Amino acid sequence: MPAYNEEAAIEKTVLDCREKILKRFSQGEIIVVEDCSTDATRKILKKLSGSVPGLVLLLNDRNMGHGPSVIRGLNASKHEYIFCTDSDGQQDPAEFWRLFPLIQEAHVVTGIRKEREDPEYRKILSWFTNSLARWIFNCPYRDLNVPFKLFTRPGLEAILPHVPSDSIIPSILIMLTAYELGLKLKQVEVTHFARTTGKCSLPGPKLAIFCIKALTELLKFRFETWHTLKGQGLSRNSNG
């Protein structure tokens, strides 16, 4: 999980992931990529790293942004299954167990936020981005930018080489890459909670700039990468 200015939520999120997911496996780790927060997030994580078994803390030496932090965490993973989620407390780690049974017959399993509890402008932005990506790439999957994703090791290793390390929309590019590579992908509805701590990091003009950059990245991916993916992936009927 990436973390930036989540001092009010980060401890609970980490401990929930430990109690609700990791303790049921014989081995594993929780990788948190701390992105040079301006609040106490890094201090809290450093304190937790001494008491939470399996917690791996990656400290960015400069603010890289959400997307590059996600990619850094995925690249640092090493186990058979890799689960990606956000650190803001808007989803319940226990719902990992809705995804896990399906990964036995897929390369990627993602959540679908059935009732997204966000401000209207974020819902509209998400709808627009998802609709645009699905139209440009003729992709049938819903909620492309959901952070709640579970991968097999072969699935993730097939996807990551095609997603730029500096992407600002890695979740969308991951889904599009998986689709075009022919990976087997399943989706299941998950709960989404309203944010009770922190605030949106893209207010006002920053949001408009982000939208322009996201559109530019989608078009670049479409014309520079998309045509190279067909036939490179794993079989849709194979779990690797």
Topology:
Layout: E1 2-3, H1 10-20, E2 30-34, H2 41-49, E3 55-59, H3 66-76, E4 81-84, H4 96-99, E5 108-113, H5 120-137, E6 149-152, H6 153-159, H7 170-181, E7 185-190, H8 205-224
Parallel strand pairs: 1-2, 2-3, 5-7
Antiparallel strand pairs: 4-6, 5-6
Mind explaining what this structure looks like?
- Helices cover 38% and strands 13% of the residues.
- It has helices at residues 10-20, 41-49, 66-76, 96-99, 120-137, 153-159, 170-181, 205-224, and strands at residues 2-3, 30-34, 55-59, 81-84, 108-113, 149-152, 185-190.
- The chain starts with a strand and ends in a 16-residue tail after the last helix.
- It is α/β, with parallel strands linked by helices and 240 residues long.
Notable traits:
single chain; 240 residues; alpha/beta; Spore Coat Polysaccharide Biosynthesis Protein SpsA, Chain A; 4-stranded mixed β-sheet; 3-stranded parallel β-sheet; 13% strand; disordered C terminus
Tell me briefly what this model is:
This protein has 240 residues and is an alpha/beta fold.
Report the principal-axis shape.
globular
What is the third-level CATH name, the topology? Spore Coat Polysaccharide Biosynthesis Protein SpsA, Chain A
Computed Rg: 17 Å
| C-alpha end-to-end distance | 25 Å
- The structural domain count equals 1
Q: Roughly what percent helix?
A: 25-40%
Number of helices: 8
Low-confidence stretches: 236-240
Question: SSE string, helix = H, strand = E?
Answer: EHEHEHEHEHEHHEH
Classified in CATH, the superfamily is Spore Coat Polysaccharide Biosynthesis Protein SpsA, Chain A
Number of strands: 7
- Strand proportion: 5-15%
Biggest β-sheet strands, sense, barrel:
4 strands, mixed
